[in-house]
Structure formats: structure tokens, C-alpha cells
Amino acid sequence: MNIPCNATIANDLDVFGKISNDLQTQGFSINPLGIPRDIADALHFHLTHMPNEKFNHAGIGREQDFDKDDTIRGDEICWVLGDSIAGQQWLRWCDDLKQHLNRRLFLGLFSFESHFAHYPPQAFYQRHVDAFHGDKNRVLSVVLYLNKDWQAQDGGELVLYKNEQDVDGIKVIPELGTLVVFLSEEFPHEVLPATKNRLSIAGWYRVNGSHEHKVDPPN
Ligand code: OGA
Ligand code: MN
After folding, report:
1. What is the residue with the minimal CA distance to atom 5 of ligand 1?
2. pTM attached to this predicted model
3. How far is the C-alpha of 29 from the C-alpha of 22, rounded, in Å?
4. How far away, in angstroms, is 91 Cα from ligand 2 center?
5. Residue 21: how many other CB atoms lie within 10 Å
6. What's the longest Cα–Cα distance across the chain?
7. Is 202 in the pocket of ligand 1 (CB under 6 A)?
8. Does the Cβ of 97 fall within 6 Å of ligand 1?
């Protein structure tokens, strides 16, 4: 019988436990093999076979102030709507993570949205934060990388900065299965240009900001 090497197994409970510990102690968590390999493979297959027309050039800001600017971000995105098996597996996994984090850390995570992202060669995303202080909206960011056999010289690292002043960020190679989670308001980050096509999923958990006059998030 072939017993698979431990290093290749991503056990959900182990990973969820590590993520919640990391969030509690440092506010971010970087996990090579962060998601079960079969889900990473299914997403990789799905994304590499998706027709180009499904992707839209990503904008900055939401709705009315939606703006497309290559000098800030050059990726093309497609929202994960759960209309594919791979997309459904991803959304289910993210929901399991949500439940775990809500039990362990009382984060009150409510809804989740995510998009596939394709960065063509040389595209980048300038240093930014995913949510602003006091804007009780996006509280937790998740990024999953979907590139097979990525080499250090291919570039395209995520650089995660520990605070606004930090200039020496932590570089993460966007290799298939690597999962990064961080508090959306706390960690500025950027995507460096790559020499190759770079694939990822970026997602955000929100708290429920609804009150009498406004339903937020809308669904
Ligand atoms: C984002 C983002 C990081 C990445 O979409 O907001 O920061 O590595 N993505 O794809
Ligand atoms: Mn971001």
C-alpha cells in the first residue's frame, strides 16, 4: 500500500487550526498546501479552461466609483458564482473555514465573496489595503494561488506588509495550493509583476453591517 507523504496532505482541521492560531497571534497566516490538493487541482483545471470572455478587467472601488486603471492594478477578474463544481468546492471550503473561525475567534464573519484573477505577464497590483479602518465591511482577506511549478525567477510574489510603515514585506510565491489569510484592514500588500500568466483567487469575508434602513451585504 502506498502511504502518501504527510507533507502532501492538507488536513482541513489542521489547516483551520493553524489559520486561527496565526490570526490570533499575528493577524495573518501563510500556508503552502493550505487547501486540499484535489480542490486546488480542480480550480486550476477550471481556471485554465475558462474562456477569456468570462474575465473582465478589474476595477478599483465599488459600483459608482468603479474605475479601471492599469497603473494601479492590471488583473482580469471573474466572480466565483458557484456555477462550476470546482467553484462550489471552493465556496464550501471557505464556508467551513468561516464556521471554524467564528467558533474559535468570534469574528462574526457573515458573507463571503471571491473572484478568480488572471494577471497577464507584467501586470501588477500596487500596494493597497482591502478595507479601511472603521469601515466594517471586509474583515478578512483570503488569497489562493493556482500556478503549477512556479519558480522564484517567475516573479509575481504577493508582498505582505505588517503595517503602514513597513517597507520590508513578506514575499509569498504564488505556487499552486498556497493560501494566505489576513485581516483586511491591517495589512497593506501588493502583487509584483510576473514573467508569466499568474492565476489566483482573492476573497473577502464580511461582517453583517445591516441596520433598519439598509441591507448590507445586499444578498
Ligand atoms: C486583491 C489582491 C492578491 C493576489 O485582489 O485585492 O490583493 O496575490 N490580490 O492576487
Ligand atoms: Mn488586496
Report:
1. 202
2. 0.89
3. 5
4. 19
5. 13
6. 61
7. yes
8. no
> What is the 3-state secondary structure of the chain?
CCCCCHHHCCCHHHHHHHHHHHHHHHCEEEECCCCCHHHHHHHHHHHHCCCHHHCEECCECCHHHCECCCCCECCEEEECCCCCHHHHHHHHHHHHHHHHHHHHHCCCEEEEEEEEEEECCCCCEEEECCCCCCCCCEEEEEEEECECCCCHHHECCEEECCCCCCCCCEEECCECCCEEEEECCCCCEEECCECCCEEEEEEEEEECCCECCECCCCC
145 Cα to the center of ligand 2, angstroms:
13
CA 61 vs. chain centroid, Å, equals 17
Cis link prior to 217 (omega < 30° from 0)? yes
pLDDT tens, position by position, 59-116 = 766 544 455 677 888 999 999 999 999 999 999 999 999 999 999 998 899 999 999 9
Cβ within 8 Å of residue 160, ≥6 positions away = 28, 30, 169, 170, 172, 180, 182, 187, 189
Q: What is the pLDDT of residues 178-201, one digit of tens each?
A: 999 999 999 999 999 999 999 999
